[in-house]
Amino acid sequence: MTGTQQLADDVGLRRYEYDDEQTVLAADLGPGRNASVDVLDDAVIVVVDGEQYDLELSGDARAFIRNGVLTIEVSQ
User: Which residue from 6, 14, 37, 63 has the least number of CB within 10 angstroms?
Assistant: First the structure.
């Protein structure tokens, strides 16, 4: 199952759910944007161009940004 929500005004966050109880969230932040991501307990903190976005999660998560694409992998 997939779904879309907004991370920022101009950034959509896509959700992919897989049969092995793994969920992947992905967002194309675009080139040249100053962005970082950190996982703290049950939350992911994303900072894009000085704006902070907090995402609450349930499960073990790892997050990274590569080539302007934010990926958050959550295992139940």
Answer: 6
CA dihedral for 4, 71, 48, 33, sign (positive or negative): negative
Domain 6-75: give its CATH architecture: Sandwich (2.60)
Its pTM stands at 0.86
Residue 39, C-beta contacts closer than 8 angstroms, at least 6 positions apart: 45, 61, 62, 63
Q: Quick one: pLDDT at residue 63?
A: 96
CB 35 within 8 A of CB 49: yes
Contact partners, residue 51, CB within 8 Å, separation at least 6: 8
